[in-house]
Amino acid sequence: MNWAHARSLIGLAHASTDASREAGRRLPARSICVASGKGGTGKSVISASLAALLSRRGRVLLVDADLGAGNAHILQNASPERSLVDVVQGEREIDEVLTACGPQLDLLAAGCGVPHMAGLSAQELASIADGLRALELDYDWCIVDSAAGLSDQTLAFARGSDVVVIVTTPDLTAMTDAYAFYKVLSSLRGEQSVGLLVNRAGSAEEAESVAQRVEEVSQRFLGHAPSSLGWLCEDARVRHAVNNRRPVVREDPAAAFSSGIERLVERIDAQFEQRRPHGLGAALSRH
Ligand SMILES: Nc1ncnc2c1ncn2[C@@H]1O[C@H](COP(=O)(O)OP(=O)(O)OP(=O)(O)O)[C@@H](O)[C@H]1O
Ligand SMILES: [Mg+2]
Fold this sequence. Notes:
By secondary structure, this protein is an alpha/beta fold. The protein has one domain: 3-Layer(aba) Sandwich (Rossmann fold), CATH 3.40.50.300. The protein is 43% helix and 17% strand. It has twelve helices and eight strands. The chain has helices at 3-10, 19-22, 43-54, 84-88, 122-135, 152-160, 172-187, 204-222, 236-243, 248-251, 256-273, 280-285, and strands spanning 30-35, 60-65, 98-102, 105-108, 141-146, 163-168, 193-201, 227-233. The chain has an eight-stranded mixed sheet with strand order 3-4-2-5-1-6-7-8, sandwiched between helices. A hairpin with a 2-residue loop joins strand 3 (98-102) and strand 4 (105-108). Helix 3 (43-54) crosses helix 11 (256-273) and helix 7 packs across helix 8. It starts with a helix and ends with a helix. The structure holds adenosine-5'-triphosphate and magnesium ion. Adenosine-5'-triphosphate binds at residues 36, 39-45, 66, 148, 199-200, 232, 234-235, 238-239, 242, 257.
């Protein structure tokens, strides 16, 4: 029995714990884009755990925005029958390609090894944006697992999100690319809140020094810097969870990485105290 079937049996199909929705206001989901300049910094494992943790509080839509080479489904142990490729090809509506991954967690899967999806035309991207505009009203949170790098498409997802989490590791190349991502995103003058998250740090001191270096360079050359979203430690349990195809917070709630994700959620909550969600689909449509 899959999650969609289980949900319909227990009547959870449209349940939501979000207060605004209970009050009848149709706010779009709060969107969080997990991004990085350099590849392999941990965006997908962080997105997978963020989505799993937030789905305990409300309905979560996980968008695999690594559209040509997605792997978000692997980390949720899902085997999508449909994906955003079908939407772009005009063969399916967006709500027909959802993959249920948990009681309140749905995935929009990307293509696997479909290079064309990594560089969509404006019209093709609009087909995803239009679908998202309606879909995001049914969710409390929308987590975007971004592709690495600075392509227009990747930047469009980041610019369209309410909160952007730029992930770096203590590697110099990852820090440099995190700064580059922040610089280019800032130049697009979006209204989103942009924060830096240090992943795979060996200690709080190391994480602090990494965050400080990115902040100093940003202040020096741009006159402003990303806010701090804290850090996640290097944790052998992460690989174990990945190999078991499960989000770390589900596989190993006591792991240090899982506690770090809980702290990250608190910091993200604080960002949303100061802003109303503006809708990823609507923002992408304006791209
Ligand atoms: N905190 C951590 N501790 C230990 N290993 C980690 C940690 N974070 C990530 N990893 C390892 O790094 C690998 C790559 O992570 P992930 O696939 O999430 O990166 P990514 O940024 O999504 O990569 P891509 O840019 O290719 O999409 C994981 O499979 C995991 O083994
Ligand atoms: Mg990834």
